[in-house]
Each structure stands twice: as C-alpha cells, then as structure tokens.
Specification:
Number of domains: 1
Distance between the termini: 36 Å
Strand order of the largest sheet: 2-1-3
Strand content: 15-25%
Number of helices: 5
Number of strands: 3
Shape: globular
Radius of gyration: 16 Å
Length: 108
C-alpha cells in the first residue's frame, strides 16, 4: 500500500489553478527558499506577519534567511497558529519548463 502524504503537504488550490496539469499531483515536503515569494505567519492572538522572502534574500545571504526563519519558528512555536508559505509559481513553472526542455533535448 502506498504511503499517504499528510493532508498539509498538498499544494493549495490557488497554486494548483496556476498550472493544474503539473501541480495537482505534487505533494510538498520541502520547498527551496528560491521558490518562496513570502511567508505569512498567523499568531493565536490574531496578528499576522508577512515575511517577504525575495526582499530578505536580496538583503542578506540565503542561509541567513533560512536560519532566521528557523529561529523565528522555534522562538514563537507556542503562539503561532499557522504558517503559510507562498510560492513563486511563475518562477517555479518557468524553471520546470526550462529543465524539462533541456532534459528532452539531451535525450534525442
């Protein structure tokens, strides 16, 4: 019997609608920072922080962004209600198409 992915590993419908023939069958367990547009952190008290990943990556090294996010999640773990990772679907789609085209070219 195939292993079932946790329900939160499926992409949101708004992302699937962008490119359904590919995104509908993808389960996400890890997302590289380069494909994140932003992160919305919702707290139990109703506050919402939006972290602009693209802007953060321009201002600091990518590994600092990753460690800063990890520290934020660790520090506020008990008061975070939800974390919403917003994908840069345009970039993801372009990269998949480019890499597929390159792969198919090499196969001829």
């Amino acid at each position: 019997m195939p292993k079932k992915s946790p329900p939160d590993s499926r992409l949101p419908d708004r992302v699937i609608d962008h490119w359904p023939e590919v995104f509908k069958d993808i389960d996400i367990e890890v997302v590289p920072l380069e494909y994140l547009h932003s992160v919305l952190v919702s707290f139990k008290d109703g506050k919402v922080w939006e972290i602009d990943i693209a802007k953060s990556r321009r201002q600091t090294a990518e590994q600092n962004v990753e460690s800063t996010l990890e520290e934020l999640f660790r520090q506020y773990d008990n008061v975070i209600d939800n974390v919403d990772f917003r994908l840069d679907t345009v970039r993801l789609k372009k990269d998949i198409q480019d890499r597929t085209r390159l792969f198919m070219k090499k196969r001829k």
